[in-house]
Every structure is written in structure tokens, then in C-alpha cells.
Amino acid sequence: MNSAWINCSAGVAGDMLLGALIDAGADAMEVANIVSGLGVDGWALTADCVDRCGISATRAIVVEHHHDDNHHRDREHAPHRPYRDIVALITNADIPDEVKANALCVFRALGEAEAKVHGVSLDDVEFHEVGSLDAIVDVVGTCAALHLLGITHIVASPIATSHGTVRSAHGKIPSPGPAVARMLAARNAPVRGIDLDYEVSTPTGVAIITALAASFGPAPTMTVTNIGHGAGTKNPPDHANVVQVLIGIADHDTSHDVESLIVLETNTDDVTPEVLAHTVSTLMVAGANDAWVTPILMKKDRHGHCLQVLCRPESAADMRSIISRETGSLGIRATALQRFTSARRTVTVDVLGHSIDVKCNDHRVKAEFDHAARAARDTGLPLREVMRLAEDAARGLLGDDDQS
After folding, report:
1. Domain check: are 114 and 17 in the same one?
2. Range of the domain at 123
3. Do 353 and 334 reside in the same domain of the chain?
4. Are residues 225 and 86 in the same domain?
5. Number of neighbouring beta carbons within 10 Å of residue 307
6. 161: nearest Cα among 32, 13, 293, 30
7. What are the pLDDT digits (tens) for 71-126?
8. Which of 214, 237, 254 is the last residue of a domain?
9. Beta-strand runs (E) in 237-393
10. Predicted confidence band at 147 (pLDDT cuts at 50, 70, 90)?
11. Number of other residues whose CB lies within 10 A of the CB of residue 169
């Protein structure tokens, strides 16, 4: 299994990821040949060697060609592309199935985040900057580079975020932007703040990482075979603006990753079921990995409940605060443990006009319940039939080797 560890400690953007993978050995011409399968004209991909704080890095640049040589158009004024149009563009493209599936996952992550930010349905999302031609090439090109390098397992470091403001098509917005924040929250992705007042992690870069990374943390155990550095546009004198990627062959079965987690728990005998249910929901919204309640028999034969929360160490303080506030508990226990998680990927399939995510690993293909339930309500089909159609479509997309 070829694995990749992506170091996002300086931030991440689509062009930086593409540059890093080209620097690590993906042929830029082959990447461009795959992307050309989209059937969109008027662009070219270049890969330039640049210096970032003494580090030799590759800067991937998508050059757009216009009929009018004097015409200049930046991303803010590029034509808007609806999410549904980008999905149709990729779905109908003559590109490898793996590239297609990954690119659809990335734009699904972007689309769902934008839908929540603007309070619209997924099909009504209008992409501005991330719908520009160079952003589309960055996403599909990165997926093509992963395919060319044979990378099947991705681990990412915590993602750097900055402060200040970001200029968007809607005006100046806080950094990180709301879509970026939504995607980070959707994956419970770890972040690290750096003291810079410009955008270091873009929506395109964060979408690629949150959609395709199997887990976050240190580099997996592997024999490193190649490295790459992808350069960002800015070149500050005291900050190497690069994404680093380490590529290697796993030394052991990486179908499972090991995470260090904490279980917080407290016993209650005077908290109502309604309050406990609300507490569990609040903990999950706040980023808990899981939360549950178990009936117990306490001292003096009192019937009570044990509230337990599984979370990352960096989230433990926030989780303790929520438990204390919602239940009034005066004591909370903590236990450190390790969790073995199966490597997985998510593919997006179409079932009767509805997009449904399907989680896949070597042993199981499982449709996302909320997506399937929505499609079942809209179509009138039984839920089990919608899930079967989605899972069959995912098996066909992944090929025989990925079928369970």
C-alpha cells in the first residue's frame, strides 16, 4: 500500500498540494492529460521550481487563455458555476474512475459547507472562487496525481489556520473563512493557529484534505520512498510557505490507524433522560468522537446513568465543561486509550438524481444514512432499496478490487 503523509503545518491550498505531488514524482504532463478529460479548453498547467526559505519547491500554476490578450479576469470575477454543473462536468468526464470518485468527494465537501454557510440546498450552491477553472484543475489535478503515484492511504497533519480577514466574492470575511471552518468541523479535523494575518488554508486545499485523508496525526509507519514540497503564491521571508508530502510503502498493515483518545465519564442519579439526551447532542456538536449513556445501579440501590464521551485529548477541557454545565456533575473521570480505526474512503454516487455518500473499506460498503433517507423521502422508494442502489453503484465505481 502506498501511503502519503501531508504536512499542512504552514497551511494548505489546492495548487500547493498539486505542486507537492508533482515534486514528489507525479508527471505534470500526465496530470494535465488526465485533467484534459474534463473536456474544458482554455487552460494550461505549468510546474515551476521556486525557492521558499531555502527549500526547493514546485509551484503548480494553472494559466487560463482568453481570446482577448488584454483581458484580465481574477477569481472574484470569474463566472459562477453551480455545484450541480461541476458534478455533471466531472461525472461525464473521460477520466479514471478513481480520479472521478475522489474529485466528486472533494466538491461534495465544498458544496455541503457552502450550503450550510449560505442557508441553501446543496443543488442551489453557487461556487465563486472554488468554481473557477484553475480551482477545478487544482482539485482534479491533485486527484490525478494521487492516482499516478498509486497513493491509496492518506494521513494529514493538523491544518494551520491564520487570523485577520480574507477577500471573497461577498467581501471581506474572517479568516479562516466560514466554509473552511465548516469543513474542519465536519471532519473534527485538528488545527494549529499560526500568527499570520492572511489566508494560509484555502477552501480548495481544506476540502481535498478533509475529503480524502483517512486520519489526522503524525506520519504513519512506512518506508519513505519520496518527498515533495509544493509552494504557495506568497513568499514571506521568515515563513516557508510550502506543503510537504512524504510518500512511502507501509511497513505493516495500515488498514488500521491508531489514535490516542480519552474517555470522560460521570455517574448521575438526579439528571432526567431529556437532559442527558440534550447533553449527548451538545457534546457531539462540540466535536466529540462519540457519546453515550448507560443505565447503572449505583450506591444505596439507586438507579442512575453513566454518561461517557470519547474525544481527542485537545478537546477534553471543552467536553468536561459541557458535562459540568449540563449535568451539574461534581466529578468527571478520564481514561486514556488507543483506538484502532479502519482505513476508509468515501465515494459519492447518484441515485435517481440524488447524491449519496458511501463509505468503503476492504470489508464493507455502507451508504450514508442521512443522504439515503433524504433520497427515500423524495423518491418514495423504501430506504433499504435506496441504500442497496447506492452501495451497488459504489462497488461499480470502485471496481472489483474494492468490492466487499
Report:
1. yes
2. 2-254
3. no
4. yes
5. 24
6. 13
7. 444 444 455 688 888 989 999 999 998 899 899 989 988 988 888 877 888 877 87
8. 254
9. 242-250, 256-268, 290-297, 303-311, 333-342, 345-351, 354-360, 365-367
10. very high
11. 15
